[in-house]
Amino acid sequence: xxGIKNAASTRQIYxxxxxxxxxxxYGEKVWNSLKDRxxxxxxxxxxxxxxxxxxxxxxKVSEACLLGTTGYGYNDLGRDTLERVYADIFHTEDALVRxxxxxxxxxxxxxxxxxxxxxxxxxxxxxxxxxxxxxVIGIRPSKGSLxxxxxxxxxxxxxxxxxxxxxxxxxxxxxxxxxxTIQRSKGYQTRPTxxxxxxxxxxxxxxxxxxxxxxxxxxxxxxxxxxxxxxxxGADLIAGSLIKNPGGGLAPIGGYLAGKKECIExxxxxxxxxxxxxxxxxxxxxxxAFYQGLFLAPSVTANALKxxxxxxxxxxxxxxxxxxxxRESRHDIIQAVTFGNPxxxxxxxxxxxxxxxxxxxxxxxxxDMPGYDSPVIMAAGAFVSGSSIxxxxxxxxxxxxxxxxxxxxxxxxxxxGIMKTLQKLVExxxxxxxxx
Length: 436
Ligand SMILES: *Cc1c(COP(=O)(O)O)cnc(C)c1O
What we know:
436 residues; Aspartate Aminotransferase, domain 2; 7-stranded mixed sheet; 12 strands; globular
C-alpha cells in the first residue's frame, strides 16, 4: 500500500469510527508537530526496558516463578523473586509486591499506618494529599484513620508559583515529626507534578534538618516516566498501584512498596500479621501477569506519555488551560485540561468512553464515589476494572472543572480517544466546528 492510499484508508476508517474529516485533519496537524518528542520518549522507554530486563535477569526469573501458591503461601518463589526484582528496579533494600494490597490508597495507607505510632506526627510539605488519603489521615473523619490512633498531621502548602515553602517546612518539623509524605503526581489538582530532581531537593532539605525522618513518596502514576525514581534520590519508602504504570495493564490487582528494609518489614507485619510478615500471602494465579506487566510497563507508560502530550497540544491549541502544557517535560502520565464548566468535563469523559473496546457503548455519568467529597465522573472501558493505565479520564465536578486524562495501553488507542473527545465537544457545540 503506498503512502497516499494508506493515509486515505486511515482517514476512511476514522470516519467509520465516527471521527469527522475536520477533527481528523486537526489531529493529524497537531501530531505532525510532535514527532521530535516521540524520539525522546522512545529513548526513555528503551532505557527503562533494559532496567527491567536487567533486574529480572539478575534475579534469575525462571519459568517456575510464574506459577503461584495457595493457602499460606509459604516459600512462594515467584512472589519472593518478584519482590527482589522490584527492589532492584527501584534500587531499594527491599520491596513488598502483593495482590493482597488492593489498590494505591491501600498501599499508601499501609505504608503510613505501619511506620507511624501513636504520638507521631505526619507532615505533607507539598500541600493537600490525594483525595482518598484525607480519610486515611483523618483530615476528613473516618473510622480507623491515623487521627483515631493518635497520629497528628501537619501540612505545608506549595507556594503560589508551585515552589516548596522551605521556611514553613522548617517551621513545621518538630520532635514529633516521624514521616514526611511527598506526592509525586498532581492527582486531582492543577499544581505541577514534581520531577524526581525536585523531590530529591526536598528530601535533602528535610534530611538536613533531621536525618531520621522517614521520607515517603506517593509514586502513583510516576513510575517509568523518568530514568530515575524517587528512591534514587533519597526516598526511604515509595508506594504505588499495580493497576497503574508498573502493572503494564496486565496486573489484575495489587500494590507495591519499595524502600528501606525496616520500613518494608513494618509494612509486611501490618499487612499480614506481626510475626508472619512477608512469609505468608499466597500469590494465587497473578504472578504471570505481574511479571509480564512489569516487563511491558516501560513501553506502556511511554504510550500513555505520548497520548498525554497529544492531548495537551490539541487542547492548548484550542485555547484551554492544560497542565502540563504542550512543551514541558513530563513526570507522570496525567494530563489535566480545564474546561471551566461541567459540560466540557462530561463531554470529554464521554468521548473517552466511546473510544473503549470494552464498554464502549455505555455512557458515563457523575456519581458519589467512596473516598471523594464531590461527585466524580469517570470514563473507563477497561479490561481490568478501574485500571487507569488503560485509557481513562475522570474529573470531580467542582470548580475549576478540570478533567484528568491518563493512560492508553497503546499510543494508537490514546490518539483515537483524544480524537473522540474532540468530536464529542464539537457535537455538543462546546467548541466550534471550524477550528484549526
Ligand atoms: C491513584 C492515586 C492514588 C490512589 O490510588 P487508588 O489505586 O485509586 O486507590 C493515590 N495517589 C495518587 C497520586 C494517585 O494518582
